[in-house]
Amino acid sequence: MYRKLLCVSMIILFIFGLLPNFAYASDLTLESASAILIDADSGKILFEKNSHDRRAPASVTKLMTLLVAIEAIKDGRGSYDDIVVASENAWRLGGSQIYLEPGEEMSLKELLIAIAVGSANDACVAVAEHLFGTHEAFVEVMNNKARELGLNDSMFINSYGLPAEDHYTSAYDIAQIGRAALKHEEILQLTTIKHYRLRENTKNPFQLDNTNKLLWWYKGADGFKTGWIGEDSGFCLASTAEKEGLRLISVVLGAPQRNGNFRDSMMLYNHGFASYQYKEFLKEGQEVTELKIGKGNQDFITGVTNEKVGLILPKGKVEGFTTQLEIAPIIHAPVEKGQVVGKISIFKENEIIKQFDIVAKESVAKGSIWRQYKKLFRDIVDFD
Q1: Given pLDDT bands bounded at 50, 70 and 90, which one contains residue 382?
Q2: Is the C-alpha dihedral spanning 93, 235, 128, 215 positive or negative?
Q3: Is domain 28-278 annotated with CATH 3.30.70.2190?
Q4: What is the pLDDT of residue 366?
Q5: pLDDT at 23
Q6: Among 223, 97, 114, which residue's Cα sits nearest to residue 162?
Q7: Active-site residue among 59, 87, 170, 239?
C-alpha cells in the first residue's frame, strides 16, 4: 500500500513540475516523433529530436494564424473592435468550432480568442476573410511570413490545420514562429486565457476551455497552442514558459498517447530550467549614458537599452563576464526616438559574446541657425 501511495505522489509531483530533474539532454526519452527546446531570446537550441522532420502540425498551425492576424492588425488592416460578419465558408468548417452562423456578427477580438483558446476553425476563416478578403489570400501571407522567417520545412494550405496535402511544418520551424510571436505581447495575452464565455448576453452562451494543460500543470507556462487530428499528426504542442527571467520555447510533434505532448514538454522544460539560467546585465529601457548632440535644439539626450541585456548560460558558469559601451563622441541632429546611437557588448576573456543596441530615449529636432551661432559664440568664449 505504501509503495502505491509513494508512486502516485511522485507522479503528481512530476506532473506539476515540482520534482528536481537530474536528467541531461542525452538522457531524455521522449515519446514524440520530433521535438525541440530553445532559448526564446537567442534561439539557442538546448535539445532537439528530428527537429527538421516535416510533419502535419494540426491546430498548432493556428500559432502562425495568430501571428499573421496580429501583425495585420498592427499594420492597420483591422482593429480588435471590428465587427466581423461570418460567411458561409466559415460556417461550413468542421472540427473544432464555435458554430458560427452565416451572417452572424462577432468582434475581431472575440474571434481571435476563439482561435487561441477554443481552436475554432470557423473563426480562423472569418478572421482571414475579414483581414485579407479571402481565406486563400490570408494563407498566402502565412507562407510569405514563413519565408520571411527563413523557414525551410513549412508549407501552409489552410489557416486552421485540418488535413491537407502538402500542409506541413517542423518542430524547428514552429519554434521560430514562437519566437516571432513573442514579439507581440497580445499573443501571450490570448493564449494564456484558460476559460472564456462567448455570446455571454445571448440565449446560447458558448464556453471556451483552453486545451493547453500546461497552463495548469506547469508553473511559468503561458502559451501557445495544442494540436491533434488523429494518427496523421499525433498529439502536438507548441508552448512557452518563463522562470526567473529565462524564457524557453518547447515544441513536440507526433506524441502517440493522449497527454504525451504535455509529458514530453514538461520533461523538456525540467531539463532546460535545471540546466540553464539567465544572467541579466541591464534591464530593457535602462538609462546607460548621456550623448552629446550636434546642431540640435538641445545639447544632450539619454541613451537607453532597446531590450534586456543578458545571456542564457549553463548553471554555475555565470562569472567572468564584462560589458563595454561604444558611443560616438557626438551625434548630429535630427535624432529620432528609438534611433540606434551605440552598442553595448558582453565580453568574456576579451571575446565579444553578444551585442545589443543602445537607442535614443527621445527625439531631437535640428536647431535653428540662430541657436547654432549662439552655441558657437559660447564655445569660443569658453575656449578663451
Answers
A1: low
A2: positive
A3: no
A4: 83
A5: 36
A6: 97
A7: 59
**Of 51, 96, 119, 265, catalytic:** 119
4 is catalytic: no
Half-sphere exposure of 79 (CA within 13 A, CB side): 2
Is residue 55 within 8 A of residue 233, CB to CB? The reply is: yes
Q: Where in the chain is the domain with CATH 2.60.410.10?
A: 283-383
- Is 59 marked active-site? yes
Q: Give the mean model confidence (pLDDT) for residues 323-344.
A: 91
The reported pLDDT for the residue numbered 204 is: 81
* Cis-peptide, bond into residue 383, ω within 30° of zero: no
According to DSSP, residue 75 is labeled T
Whether the per-residue pLDDT at 185 is higher than 80: the answer is yes
Longest dimension (CA), the chain: 94
| Residue 84 burial by Cβ neighbours in a 10 Å radius (0-12, 13-18, 19+) | buried
Looking only at the bridges linking them, the beta strands covering 340-348 and 351-360 are antiparallel
Q: Exposed, middle or buried: residue 329 (CB in 10 Å: 0-12, 13-18, 19+)?
A: exposed
**Which residue is listed with cell 507526433?**
254
pLDDT at residue number 203:
80
Q: Is 348 one of the catalytic residues?
A: no
> What's the mean pLDDT when you consider all of the chain?
88
Q: Are 278 and 310 in contact (CB under 8 A)?
A: yes
Beta bridge partners of 280: 310
CATH for 283-383, among 2.60.410.10, 2.40.110.10, 3.30.360.10, 1.10.10.10?
Answer: 2.60.410.10
User: Would you say residue 256 has pLDDT above 80?
Assistant: yes
Exactly one of 62, 87, 96, 154 is catalytic; which is it? Answer: 62
The CA–CA distances, whole Å, from 362 to 188, 282, 304, 339, 381 equal 29, 19, 10, 9, 30
- From CA 224, how far away is CA 64, in angstroms rounded? 11
* Alpha helices in the chain, H assignment, sequence order: 2-15, 62-74, 88-91, 108-118, 121-132, 135-148, 171-181, 185-191, 214-217, 260-275, 369-383
Rounded to whole angstroms, the Cα distance separating 275 from 22 reads 9
